Amino acid sequence: MEGDKLNVGGMLIDKPEGVECEAKTATIYMRPHMLHIDPQPNHRQHFRAIVKHINAAGPQVKVELTTAWGAPIYVELSQERFRTLALQKETEVFVSPKEIRMFEE
Questions:
Q1: CATH second-level architecture of 29-98?
Q2: What pLDDT is recorded for position 46?
Q3: How high is the mean pLDDT of the chain?
């Protein structure tokens, strides 16, 4: 925590609305379908990650990423978004949260 910002792997993002947190550290949960992948940095708050595995079977494509700070994260995309992005293994992408849930430690 840094003021009204969360430090996620060196990226400062806005603290979720309605959340009061006095702790210096907190656990942040981001649901796989609430993350957005872009091939380039965008105007939103984002962090870098590398594509490690893609499971395109079924209506939702499951993508395993490794963040710049080494943490694994999982993102679920529609088949249409997956085709638009044309993701490949070992590609660098930029991930931005659509929604964050935070729990004080």
A1: Beta Barrel (2.40)
A2: 81
A3: 81
* Integer angstrom CA distances of residue 55 from 37, 52, 58, 76, 87: 15, 10, 9, 10, 11
Which string of DSSP letters, residue by residue, matches 66-80?
EETTS-EEEEEEEHH
- Sign of dihedral through CA atoms 16, 20, 24, 30? negative
Domain range annotation of the chain? 29-98
Q: Is 24 helix (H, G, I), strand (E, B) or coil?
A: coil
* Pairwise CA distance, residues 92 & 101, whole Å: 25
Q: What is the pLDDT of residues 87-96, one digit of tens each?
A: 999 999 999 8
Specify the pTM: 0.73
